[in-house]
Amino acid sequence: METKRKALGKGLEQLFSNEVIDFDNFEKKIVNETSDNDVVEIPLSEIRSNPYQPRKEFDEEALQEFADNIRIHGIIQPIIVKKSIKGYELIAGERRTRASKLAGKTTIPAIIRDMSDQEMMEIALAENIQRENLNPIEEATAFSKIIESTNITQEEAAKRFGKSRSYLTNLLGLLKLPEETKKLVSENKISMGHARVLSKLSSIEEINKMAKRIVKDNLSVRDIENLTSDTEKKNPVKREKKYNTRYNIYENIMREKIGTKVKIGTKKIEIPFDSDKDLDRILEILGISLDGE
Question: Could you tell me the residue ranges of all domains in the chain?
Fold first, then answer.
């Protein structure tokens, strides 16, 4: 592993040895530590996207503007790639690569570095998160894949990417939304704040209905918090006659912590889950694990 780290170069070695991944100065360090002789022109036709690229939507108008700039000024900073069996895989520089193709270029300056699949995945996510390019659903999906493939906990993932535990819990909760509503989130028609409130609802029909209303009536997050509260009052769940208002406060706190709807009654707490994976997530948040695991 030590040999592998040295092969990565100081910039990458520092990036992965840090407790928190910092992508902000990643490319700058790599470029500064690379001699001009090690920057090579490679055919754009031989480059494919990072297979772990979480971003699915690209602003075509912004890319075209970038392409126009490249026609005039060329590529200021080389991309970073990994040699693969057939050509190269992008490590950093997706927009530069796409814009260069739009500009009619056939080659692009590049720095070649080696990297493992896990590092490729972490780099792709860090670049997009820290440069604020991902929509909430893309970000949630990327975090979910990293947690699942690397077997790290949510707490470790949050720390690794400089996020709070509650932020990541709420983000992953968005993946429970029905596809129709997730599409609206991906298209930035409803915000993460809206989606977070919707993810606490149990009815798919009600979620989709409320999501459409948010778009149509331009509702604020506070508006839908009030509306969903009214809906719950009109469709009450069977509860004890003497419902303690403190329980409502506790429910809200627990919902915030574990990202799912919690019901508290006299001498009883109900925490629903929709799969074994979701149960594992909740147990992890509560600090519960089986011996030996």
Answer: 2-134, 177-235, 237-293
> Over 69-105, what HEC string results?
HHHHHCCCCCEEEEECCCCEEEEECHHHHHHHHHCCC
d(CA 8, CA 34): 12
pLDDT at position 23, please? 63
In this prediction the pTM is: 0.59
Instruction: State the sign of the Cα–Cα–Cα–Cα dihedral 64, 130, 19, 142.
Output: negative
* DSSP letter, residue 199: T
pLDDT in tens, 200-240: 887 888 899 999 999 998 888 888 888 876 555 555 544 44
Cα separation, 209 vs 44, whole angstroms: 45
Cα–Cα distance between 222 and 204 in angstroms, integer? 21
Q: What is the CATH number of domain 2-134?
A: 3.90.1530.30
- CA separation, residue 2 to residues 27, 47, 49, 177, 218 (Å): 22, 28, 28, 43, 54
Strand 88-92: give its sheet, edge to edge. Answer: 40-43, 107-112, 79-83, 88-92, 47-48
Nearest CA to 13 out of 31, 34, 30 is that of 30
The residues that are catalytic are 94
Of 178, 190, 192, 198, nearest to 218 by C-alpha is 190
Q: Write the CA distances from 65 to 69, 98, 141, 187, integer angstroms.
A: 6, 12, 29, 21
